[in-house]
Amino acid sequence: MTGFGEASTVSNGWQVRVEIRSVNNRHLKVSLRAEDALQCFEAELERLVRAALHRGTVQVSIESVRPSRADVYKINQVALRAYLSQVTEVLGGPIPDPSIGSIVAGILALPGVVSEPSRRSTESVGKDEDWAIIRPVLDEAIVRLGQMRQCEGANMALELLAMSRQVRGLVAKVRLRIPLSLVSQQDRLRERVSQLLVLHEPTVQVDSSHLAREIALLADRVDISEEMVRLESHLDQFDTMMAAKSPAEGMGRKLEFLIQEMGREANTMGAKSPDVEISRSVVEIKATMERIRELVLNVE
């Protein structure tokens, strides 16, 4: 299913942002894009994504913005006051206004006055403290992706249930047609026998019991009631899974199996029944089930 999830955080001036996008795919394909300094996390990032998702083409993008030099400079006020005190002592009084700028600039360049305690260098990336910042951002992005996919899944479930009702309606139509079809087949058999009698009478004798047996065998050959019962049973399971408030893990593959079995029953129905009307309904059933199958391929 399609979806998008994004999350970000700022820690000690270090900004981290994760984006996850997914599009339909019956399998799971994960690709990651990260700056060089974060590539050491790619294996763990992919492992977490694969643990959370089971289908789809998933693109994960992780970006970070390091603090600028102005953000990370820290002035050691104790050292600065000590230097200024020594300068005023040497001058024997306050620093003259015209000289303040140059003197302060010189003092700031002295050791210990300016430090960078919060600056994160690329050498620090890969340490546990960096992963402790990245991991929650990834988890939040996955959650938001899942929320969007759930919304799409809810809409998809409604569409699948509507298609299931269409199949049920077609099965009901077939059930109503079966008695008429059976009578039609029996009448056709009797008509053929009558035509043979006209051609070969009186040399051909027809035993009424044999004719009744052939009619019974014909009825058995074209009987599709068993297939219809199994098809409706599969539809019941399908609807139950679609209506579940908490879908089971791997539900998509279970639905695929049910669709495969329903297709098998529909094929058998079409092969066994010579009735044109039933054949048309079976074709519609198979077409609807193919549309269901295409949607189910995207279900987790």
- Total beta strands: 6
- What is the molecular shape? rod-shaped
Q: SSE order, as H and E?
A: EEEHEHEHHEHHHHH
Task: State the major sheet.
Answer: 4 strands, mixed
- The average pLDDT score comes to 81
Number of helices: 9
* Coarse structural class: alpha+beta
Q: What is the percentage of strand-forming residues?
A: 5-15%
**What is the share of helical residues?**
55-70%
| Terminal residue distance | 8 Å
Offer a quick outline of the entry.
This protein is of the alpha+beta class. The protein contains nine helices and six strands; from the N terminus they run βββαβαβααβααααα. Helix 1 links the parallel strand 3 (28-34) and strand 4 (56-65).
Could you explain how this protein is built, in words?
The chain is of the alpha+beta class. It has three domains: 3-68 and 127-149, Ribosomal Protein S5, domain 2, CATH 3.30.230; 74-115, no CATH class; 152-296. Helix content is 64%, strand content 13%. It has nine helices and six strands, in the order E-E-E-H-E-H-E-H-H-E-H-H-H-H-H. Strands 1-2-4-3 form a four-stranded mixed sheet. Residues 117-126 have low confidence and may be disordered.
